[in-house]
Structure formats: structure tokens, C-alpha cells
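Q: I'm writing a short methods note and want an example of a predicted protein-small molecule complex. Could you take the sequence and the SMILES for LBFN2T5F and return the bound structure as C-alpha cells? Please keep the output block clean; save any remarks for afterwards.
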Amino acid sequence: MITFLKMHGLGNDFVILDARDPDSGIGADISVRAASLVSDRRRGIGCDQLLIIRPSDNADIFMQILNQDGSVAGACGNGTRCVADYVMRDLDVDQLLIETKSTMLFAERSRIGDADLIAVNMGAARLDWQQVPLAQAQDTLHVDLGADAPALAVCQSMGNPHAVMFVDDVAAIDLDAIGPKLEHADIFPDRANISIVQKLDDAKFRMRVWERSVGITQACGSGACAVGVAAHRRGLAGRLSEIVMDGGSVIIEWRDNGTAGGEVIMTGPVTYVGHGVLDDAISALFGTHHAKA
Ligand SMILES: N[C@@H](CCC[C@H](N)C(=O)O)C(=O)O
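A: Understood, no commentary inside the block.
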């Protein structure tokens, strides 16, 4: 039987499986069927992303990220804060190095006012068209996503691809309608996460997000990083900004470390929902004998 933890970061919710113990019952390969069943809001536990904590030779842990449909993601900012808090409590430490498919992340406890938060160094913003990736060579600061797009997009990778569009009124955008079209725009060979953003003031932005492989979510941490970076690249903000999403805010700092991509620090809260045990039949889907779909 496999135990799970349910957490969320600003309403972006996660089922977390801890596979550090070799006897956890969780195999090396997670099938699309197993991941999408657990993520299903009617037939499973329900989540935007399934996160699996594994041992790492290079860091304190390895974090595997699977979207609701079972597809693999390279980054998950809100999920990183949740996993970091859980593992730091477990190991009784205040800092953690986390390896993911795309990068190495450093997390630590942080406090703003009386709020206990987690800060994650999400690494460099990847600004070249090959890094996003885009389908053809072009400037990533003004990308034409076609007739469905409300504005030219700023594109960058935060370990996963993000397109950010600044508009006058985020509430006026039919994100349900344009989100899937822009996610699948020809310019994105790996598809993209789509953020629509309104400037509230020089250091505050309202963001709505359509996540790749999921749809509209209440918050997207890597998306908020992309928004902070995009706002600075467009000259709309300094290096520090608050990004207000449907589920709440994170603070983004795009630090200049002398490299083009700098390093992006995301600070925000985590929430524990509960834990439980997967039924035998569902646990069996996570066993070692099931090949990756
Ligand atoms: N919710 C996440 C992003 C998860 C991955 C994304 N849907 C993708 O496929 O790139 C976050 O908080 O960053």
C-alpha cells in the first residue's frame, strides 16, 4: 500500500508520493495511466500535478513532476515549495537542494512580516529562442502567437516553456477559449504555459494562467517567475515584483548575477491538506512491473 500527501501552493494542488524508501512500493517508472488516475478529481485523489520524491546522488532529493494528464514537466514552482517544506520538516533542516529533470533548485525557509514562507532559487531564466523552445529563430521579447493572442508574447523557459502577454484588463480575456489554442500554437514545439497579465503598479501584477497539460489553475509558480522576468525585460518593472494570481501572491526577485539569465527567487506559502493510503488496486499501478506509457 502506498501512502500519499495532499498539499497546495495558493490553490495549485498536488498529490505527493515519497519514494525515498526503497520499500515505498513506488517503482522507477510511473505510467501515464497511474498518474492520470490519481490526479483525476472524480476517480482519483485529484490534483493539478503529481509529485514524486526520490533519492538523488547530486542533491538532497530528486523531484519528479507529472501533470494531471501524466505528461512530464521540467519545473513546478508551487510544488517545489510544498515538497521542500515537507522534506525539510522530515529531515529537520531549513535548507534543501532539489534536483529536477531540468535543473537544480535551492530552497530555504523565509519570513515576510509574520508569514512563514518558502523561498526557492528557481535558477536562470532561459531567454534564447532555442531554450524556450520556439520553432524558429527569433527575438523572444515580442513573439506573435497568431490571431487568438491578445498581445505579443514574451517567451522564456523556467525549466518549462512560458509565454507571457500583458493586457489592460485580465478579466476581459476568455482564457478558457484562447488558452488551449495558444498552448498548442505552432511556434511552440513542446507547447507552452500561457499567462495573461495586467500591470497593477510598478511592482505588482495580476496574472491568470493556462497551464500546459492541465488548463486554468489557481496559481503557477514557474509562471509567476516568468511574469516577473517578462515584466522586467519589457521595462514594466524593476527586479522585484508581487505576482497576484487567482489563489494568492508570490514575490519574485530576478537577481542579476552577471549572467543573461540571472537567477529567479520565488517566495510564497505552502498548505498541508492531509494524507492517506491508496487502495491496493491503485497502489499496484505504481509497482515496478509497470512500464512507462
Ligand atoms: N504548476 C506548476 C507548473 C507545472 C508544470 C506545467 N504545467 C508544465 O507542463 O510546464 C508551477 O507551479 O510551476
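A: Remarks, as requested: Residues 154-261 form a domain with the Diaminopimelate Epimerase; Chain A, domain 1 fold (CATH 3.10.310.10). Residues 289-293 have pLDDT under 50 and may be disordered.
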